[in-house]
Design a protein that fits this description.
The complex is a heterodimer.
Chain A lengths: L1 E6 L7 E7 L10 E8 L3 E2 L2 H7 L4 E6 L15 E8 H6 L4 E7 L1 E2 L10 E5 L4 E7 L26 E6 L1 E3 L4 E5 L6 H35 L8
Parallel strand pairs in A: 1-12
Antiparallel strand pairs in A: 1-2, 2-7, 3-6, 3-10, 4-8, 5-6, 9-13, 10-11
Chain B lengths: L7 H25 L7 H14 L14 H6 L2 H4 L4 H23 L4 H12 L2 H8 L4 H16 L3 H14 L7 H7 L12 H30 L4 H23 L2 H39 L11 H6 L5 H23 L4 H15 L8 H5 L13 H27 L6 H24 L44
Helix pairs in contact in B: 1-5, 1-6, 1-7, 5-6, 5-7, 5-8, 8-9, 9-13, 10-15, 11-12, 15-16, 16-19, 18-19
Chain lengths: ~230, ~475
């Protein structure tokens, strides 16, 4: 059985922790063990960060690749992240408990008039064995494609997915602070007034400095260093 | 060891040792800790360099928004060792220190006293930390200071090339065009032999100016004789104002200034053209357009960030873009033209204003003006006790307040947006105060004297050094053309 939890529950950088005991042997050695995360559009993973963490030999990240967009601009939706273990690697770890730490990053959510936080639910990951329906040729070393799961993936009729039990520990939710639309008038006025006053103050000091220098030059005063 | 026993070589070696220690420590921390020493930007540079070694575009790396030249420079990260780029940045860091010391002594400061100001950069732990973490800002500092130094020692074309390269690397140094052009005044002599084309331009310019000058005298005579018709007066006055503006404009466009603009632009466009031929629109979009149109809705030091977040995507968003640009542009240009002949102060104030008023402001932007601070302090009347201390404390405290609320927002998930905005306003206010005090307390020092030589405004040079040694920086000094 696999268990999953999200922590901290309120942050822009939560982590999705997965604990699995590798005790489900595959039906065939050409199958691949998949832990598939469906990340909603309110969050994203950084594939470069995952590659640096070296969680597994095969990490697949699909869909939205913009790391900076706020949620309303993330048009491609969330991510599908698959951490894949080949059967040989799985069998070497048979009986061991594996912990996976998937770092998430929350996008800035749309400002709201009522709430100070928005709650984002992370679906429980799916865990299981992906096998090709037609066994591959002996010489072929290709890894089976990702199985058909939800609407994020293209339907692939070449594979089967033998799912194992996967449960969430606690709420798989992340609370993200959001800006208050009620603040907009105050922020707009305050920012413009501050910038205007600051600009005028600096402009005045520039003007005084120039006038003072012109007066000095007009007097014909020369420095010793001249 | 007393200051008198320390030479620049010793200081420089100490700075190099500090950076080597930090480099080695950084590699160790990256290997043994979850929290890495290396900046995320360095990983972006390395990934982009890796794409280049694989024959791909560096822009295949998400968030790589720099010139491909930088990724090319860092390809030894892949071929040799990953910390190669950090060594380059550290080298640039140390070169900035050398340039600072050279410039200070060129302006008459004794070497021992110059060490004090240079150590503000070389022994500054924040500066050493930034370059050893893999941030490339020291390369920009090197190019900007290099341009100023080359202008000082009258290596004109090298200065133009340096400036063109700096603007290619990051667009912000283009703001220094204003003070550089002001500095290149004809009365300080010609820094270089003009080619024939420029002599032709000069003859044409003089001819046109004489025509304008003659018209001004005639216009004045007309007004003196007959000023009954108010509308005619208004038209005449307007045309006189326009005439004078055109005259001043043409006077400003001396051959030296024109050649600086043309040569720098040629270097910039040549490099840009080369990169465009390799990477096409992606190069333009990522290296330039992104930075010009960038509106970061995520929290940063900018006074505008919360407003941008609350209005992101709305119609107001576009108007905001124009309004935020206006005070920044006006103040940066005005300070450049006002203080151009005191080039270091001009560039420092310009950079400080640019960063303060920008729509996005992160810690690495502070490096852009920190490298110029040692060249401004010798001319300030602000004493450390107590005004200087108050300014520093204000800058640090407002920044610390901002960081406190930002930490709670980002890592604790608390809604501190409004407090963060207030802290941003306070930080903006403290920056405005710093700029005003620096301007009000600055002893304006022309870089060049009436004779065209570098003025010794910060001392009388080394005790053994003869005043004529300062003129060694003026090789190639030529007699200016007769005034108009």
């Amino acid at each position: 059985m696999a268990t999953h939890t999200v922590a901290p529950s309120s942050s822009f950088h939560p982590h999705l922790y997965t604990n699995i005991t590798f005790n489900h042997a595959p039906s065939r050695l050409d199958c691949i063990f998949d832990i598939i995360y469906i990340i909603p559009r309110e969050a994203f993973v950084d594939i470069n960060q995952l590659n640096d963490l070296k969680i597994s030999k095969h990490v697949v990240v699909l869909n939205e690749t913009d790391l900076e967009a706020p949620v309303e601009v993330a048009v491609r939706g969330g991510n599908v992240v698959a951490i894949r273990y080949e059967a040989d690697d799985y069998l070497m770890l048979l009986g061991q408990q594996i912990s996976i730490d998937l770092p998430l990053h929350m996008r800035y959510q749309k400002p709201d008039s009522m709430w100070t936080h928005q709650t984002v639910t992370i679906p429980t990951p799916k865990v299981g064995w992906t096998c090709l329906i037609d066994p591959p040729q002996k010489s072929s070393s290709s890894i089976p494609p990702l199985p058909t799961i939800d609407f994020h993936l293209e339907r692939d009729s070449r594979t089967t997915f033998d799912e194992i039990e996967s449960t969430a520990v606690g709420n798989m939710t992340v609370s993200v602070p959001v800006g208050r639309t009620d603040d907009i008038y105050t922020v707009q006025t305050g920012t413009f007034v501050t910038v205007t006053l600051g600009s005028l103050w600096i402009a005045y000091s520039l003007y005084r400095a120039v006038v003072k220098r012109k007066r000095t030059e007009a007097k014909g005063k020369r420095r010793k260093s001249e | 060891m007393a200051l008198s026993d320390v030479s620049f070589r010793t200081l420089w070696l100490a700075a190099a040792a500090l950076r080597i220690i930090l480099l080695v420590y950084g590699e160790w921390q990256d290997r043994h800790f979850v929290v890495k020493y290396t900046d995320i930007d360095y990983l972006v540079f390395t990934d982009a360099a890796r794409h280049i070694t694989q024959g791909e575009s560096p822009y295949n790396r998400a968030t790589y928004r720099y010139t491909p030249l930088l990724a090319m420079l860092l390809t030894p990260n892949i071929y040799l060792f990953q910390a190669f780029g950090k060594c380059i940045f550290v080298g640039a860091d140390l070169l900035v220190g050398w340039l600072l010391h050279r410039i200070l002594t060129l302006r008459g400061m004794p070497s021992k006293r110059a060490l004090l100001y240079t150590s503000l950069w070389l022994l500054n732990p924040m500066v050493a930390n930034i370059s050893t973490r893999g941030n490339c800002e020291s390369i920009l500092g090197c190019l900007v200071l290099g341009t100023m130094y080359l202008l000082l020692i009258r290596h004109f074309y090298a200065a133009c090339a340096c400036f063109g390269l700096a603007v290619h690397l990051k667009i912000y140094p283009v703001i220094y065009a204003a003070p550089f052009l002001v500095l290149l005044d004809e009365k300080y002599g010609l820094p270089v032999n003009w080619p024939n084309m420029l002599w032709t331009y000069e003859r044409l310019r003089i001819q046109v100016l004489r025509l304008y000058l003659d018209e001004d005298e005639k216009a004045d005579d007309v007004l003196a004789e007959d000023d009954n018709d108010r509308l005619d007066n208004l038209v005449d006055k307007s045309s006189r104002v326009l005439s004078r503006a055109l005259r001043h404009g043409l006077m400003f466009l001396s051959p030296t200034r024109v050649s600086f603009a043309v040569v720098s632009a040629a270097v910039f466009f040549a490099l840009g053209g080369l990169m465009y031929s390799m990477y096409e629109d992606q190069f333009l979009e990522c290296t330039y357009f992104y930075h010009v149109t960038r509106k970061d809705h995520r929290h940063n030091f900018s006074v505008w960030f919360y407003h941008i977040y609350l209005t992101f995507g709305s119609n107001e968003d576009n108007i905001l873009g124009l309004l935020t640009f206006f005070p920044q542009l006006v103040l940066v240009m005005a300070s450049g033209f006002a203080f151009g002949k005191d080039i270091f102060f001009a560039c420092f104030i310009q950079t400080f204003l640019f960063v303060t008023f920008n729509k996005v402001c992160t810690s690495q932007y502070f490096m852009w003006y920190l490298c110029l601070l040692p060249l401004v302090l010798p001319s300030t009347k602000i004493s450390f006790r107590w005004l200087g201390l108050c300014l520093i404390v204000c800058w640090v405290v407002t920044q610390a307040a901002w960081l406190y609320f930002a930490y709670h927002l980002e890592f604790e998930g608390e809604n501190t947006f409004f407090s963060l905005w207030l802290a941003g306003l306070a930080f903006f206010g403290s920056n405005c105060w710093i700029v005003v005090e620096l301007i009000n307390n600055h002893r304006f020092e022309n870089v060049f004297g009436a004779s065209g030589r570098i003025r010794w405004c910060w001392g009388n040079g080394e005790p053994k050094q003869q005043p004529s040694d300062a003129s060694s920086a003026n090789n190639g000094h030529m007699v200016p053309p007769s005034s108009l």
